[in-house]
Input
Amino acid sequence: MAGERKKMMLELRNISRRFADFSLQDVSFLVERGDYFILLGESGAGKSMVLETIAGLTAPDSGYMFLDGRDITCEKIQNRRIGLVFQDHAVFPHLTVGENIGYSLHSARLSREKKHAKVKAIANELGIRELLARRPGTLSGGELQRVALGRTLIQEPSILLLDEPLSSLDTRLKGDLRRLLRAIHRKGQTILHVTHDYEEALSLGTKIAVIHKGMIIQSGTPADVFHHPKSEFVANFIGVKNFFPANLVTEDQVVFAYICNNIRVRIVTDVPGGEGFILIRGEDILLSTLPVETSATNNFKGIIEEIVPNAGGIDVTINTGIELHALITRDSLEKLGLRAGNTCWVHFKATTVRFIIN
Amino acid sequence: MSTRFTSIQLTFILLGSLVLLFIVAPLAGMFLNTTPAQVFETAREAEVRDSIWLTIYTSLAGTLIFSVAAIPLAYLLARKNFPLKKLVTGIIDLPVVIPHSAAGIALLGFVSRESALGKMGSAFGLNFVGHPSGIAIAMAFVSIPYLINAARDGFSGVPVRLEKAALTLGASPRRVFFTISLPLAWRNILSGLILMFARGMSEFGAVIVVAYHPMVTPVLIYERFGSFGLKYARPVSVLFIMISLGLFIVLRWLAKEKK
Output
């Protein structure tokens, strides 16, 4: 019990809040110490509202919040020790980068030198040391994001809340910031990160909760959520059932992703190698009853495990050593005469496989 | 931007020029009818100098003293919704729309020795009527809407998210106001302060009712006109306008520098 309590970090219990056109309903989840917790949902699902409630910027109508066992439901914002990085950064435009980062040190009983040293240390860590004297108006989106992060991290928050931190950045900067967030998490920072992007969720999260219309509809490890979507919404929202941890290897200038059981999938990517996930959309998988020649470079033989109709068509599960889901039409199903237990061939092109670096 | 003008734009330019001429012509006429020697002579009169100085410092004092309460009120108006907010907003604009001589009459009743405020003043040996403090009150009364409205616009322009961000960084609401809201709204507030100061300096109607003496410059101009005629009122007017303009150009410039 004591061990459990030590692990416990942030708990939301049946948080509800009604607005004119929207409401949070019975939002409950548990973020444990050291988690990188992703709250995944479409825009307008209530993600930011959840963060603002945790930070104390809006009060819930009912429900409780605990931080390390302490009830913080009615705690003053400034006493919560929760760091929130806003989606639009909310960097103070009239203060320099250094003053922004050091803003929260005002109340700390530290000497001027110690405060300066702390600001410099954080700025170093985030790679913005040379920006300390600059005004926010002259900074790029990526730099502002780092200033906002530094300003929050310097107060050593129990938990770091991130509101769509990658949404305003271009692809290259996204990669940089993901690496930075991973590094911050590795140092032991517990993070609650809100996003609408399942790739971000997979690439960063150790736990995922899916929120829809103000309700948490599923939570668990990425594997739980992506492999066993509890509802059709989750399945459709995530859109991908074929997702596997994979190791990228280049052999004779051809890139292969090795999945468990030494199954390898040919893929086309700029990434030279490393650990990550591969994703294949069910619509991109072709089925045949014979080993036909196609332009697809990935061809596997397998056994049909299950045939389940859903909103998008028929979901056929084939075991080829890994479980693959193919989405086909009812016409195709009848034409090929597929039955559970039958043998069939699976084909997909290397270009349809997406790789997400971890 | 095109340098060619359509006929409607030409019409607007013509009409616009007439308005500008309407503003500039009387002032220019007055300046042209006054020789530098006359202005110089007037500036040497102790009565004139005292009155200009009185006008500047009473208006400045009124502006600064009343801003202590006006700026927080502007913040409330910008940030909070409360019952009868529209009524409060309307009350704030009242001094602009009522005749200023009527405002002076109302104020006279408010600050005279028989009133509560007057009695309080008397207890400290202060009589507002015919006293610089009464002048400052009259000036502030008619000019305070300019400050409140400018400051309210300034606070409204400060993103609430910045204040929220400061709160999550452990700042108390008081610190948020002084380190985030106030500095970010400062340009508007400063321009409101300058406007209130300028409006106070030029006030005649309310001031003359509350205090004919000591004479602020607008009253002095009126008195010279009444006693001696147009010719004698002109040099003081020119001098006062020049000083006012000079003061506001410097203040505006300082405000811009601070940016």
